[in-house]
Phosphomannomutase (Leifsonia soli), 572 residues
Amino acid sequence: MTDLTPPTKDTPELLAEARSWLAQDPDPETRDELEALIVAAEAGSAEAVADLHSRFDERLAFGTAGLRGAIAAGPNRMNRVLVAQAAAGFARWLLEHAEGGTPSVVIGYDGRKNSDVFARDTAELMAGAGVRAILLPRLLPTPVLAFAVRHLDASAGVMVTASHNPPNDNGYKVYLGGEDHGSQIVSPVDAEIAARILDVARGSVAELPRSDRYEIAPDDVERAYIDATVAVAVTETPRDAVSFVYTAMHGVGWRTAREVFARAGFASPTPVTEQIDPDPAFPTVAFPNPEEPGAMDLSFRTARDAGADLVIANDPDADRLAVAVPDPSSPDGYRRLSGNEVGALLGWRAAEIAAERADERGPVGTLACSVVSSPALAAVARAYTLDFADTLTGFKWVSRAPGLVYGYEEALGYLVNPDTVRDKDGISAAVALLDLANGLAADSVTIAERLEQFAERFGFFASDQISLRVTDLSRIGEIMAALRSTPPSHLGDVRVTQIDDLRDGFGGLPPSDVLRILLEDGSRVMVRPSGTEPKLKIYIDASSDEGTVEERRRTATGRVAALSEAMRSLVG
C-alpha cells in the first residue's frame, strides 16, 4: 500500500537515504529505477522528489501478515534489500528463541515476479546466519508451505507470495512451528521480529553473511501434502459424477490440484487453458482475485462450453477457493457463490462428519470463523452441539481456535483439515466441496439445492459488503472516530441495541480496530479498516427462520439491502 503520510524529510536527507539504499541494492532493475529518480530529483524534478518521499518517508510495516507491497526500490516497497533485511532480522529472532539445537526454516515461493529471487535470498541469508534453511524444490501453493512447516518439523516457515494482489505486488508471510503448529505469526511475535528487522536495517545488507549451504526439500514433501489432501474426501459413493471446470488464475495451483483430484477419484476437470499456467503478468484478468468482477469470465465461458456442473477456482497461490454453480438467471449462465455460502456448506459438512464420528459424549470439536463472517456457522454449531468460536480476521487467528475441526472466513478462505494444514487451503477446500457435491449427486441433489436445504434447516442468511476506497488514509480514521464519538441510534428504521468496540479487546478477542453494531431485528454490521488496502470495509448480515425458504430469503435480503443503504448514507 502506498503511504500517504506528508513528507517528513528535507530533500538533502531524502537524497542521502536514497543513495545509501542504492549502494546496497543487488537488483539491477530497482537500482536503475532508483538512480534515475535520484538524478531527476537532483535536477529539480518535484515529481521525482515526491516519488522518493513516498518510498523513503516510511517503510512497509512488518506485521502479523508479514510484508506486502508493490515491487520497486525503497523501504516502502517490496525489493531485494527489504527482503534481505526481513530475512536477516527473522534469522536473528529464530536464533534468539532457539531452545537447544539449530533452528530451522522452510521457504516456499509462488509464480509472481521475483518470488524465486526473494526465496533464494532468504535461504542464503538464513544459512549465512546459522539457521538451517530448507528451500522447497519449485514454485508451489502456499498451503504446501504451511504443510511443510509441520511435516518437516521446522521451527518456522516463509512463503513468498502476494496471494491475489495486483500483478506488481509481492509479499512475505511468516509461519511458526512447534507449539504454533504451522500457523501464521500473531502479536507480540510480529513486533519482536519487526524490531530485529529494524536493527538489521541500520546497516547495509551487502555486509550480511550469505551461504549457499541451504537444503532443497525433497519431492516427497509435495507428495505427502497430496496424500493428506486426498484423505479429505470421505464419501463412499462414486466420486466422478460431478463435472467441473478448474482455473488456477495464472497461479501455481494446477500441478498440485490436478494430482489431488485424480488421486481422489474425481472426474477429470476441464481446465481454463488461458489461465492454467503460472504467469506473473496475469494477462487475462485486471485483478487476479476471483472475488473481483470479471475475474471468472473465462471460467464461465469454459463451463458453458463444457456444460459443467461446477466451476472451481483457486487464487494465484491456491490458498483461496471460489465456487460457481449453474444459474439460468445469470447472463454468464453461472453464479459465483459467496464465501459465506461456501463456508456454511462446508461447515455443515464438517458438523455431519463430527456427528458420524461421535462417541458417548456426542459430537466433539469447534467450528470457527472470523467476526466479519456470517453468523450461519454459529447456527450449525448450535444444531450439532459443537463448540463455536469467532476470531479476529485472518487465518492466523482462525487456525488457533481450540479443538478446531473446521474454520473459514468470508474472503474465500477455508480450513478443512486442521490436523494437516493450519492455514486456509484452496486445494483441500476444493476436495471437500467436490466430495460434498458428489455425495449429494448420489441423491440427485445439486449444490444449489443444498443451499436451499440449508436455509430450510438453519434459516436464510444474507450478507453484503461495502468497500470504501480512499485516497487519503486519514479519512478512514475520521470515519471510525466519528462512529465511536457519535454512534448511530438507528440504521434506517431499525434500532441499534448494542455497539461492541474491539479496539481494546472484547469478549476474549485481542484488540482490533473493529466496531460491531447489533440491531433490534437480529441483524449485524461490522466496520473495520482493511489490513492490506486503502479501504474501509463494512460487513452486513441478516437472517430469517420464519416462513418458507422464499419468504426467509426475501426477509433477510430486504434487511441487508436496507442496512446497506443506511450505512452508505452514514459513512458518505
Summary: The longest strand covers residues 460-469. Residues 549-571 form the longest helix (23 residues). The chain has 17 helices and 22 strands. Residues 1-6 have pLDDT under 50 and may be disordered.
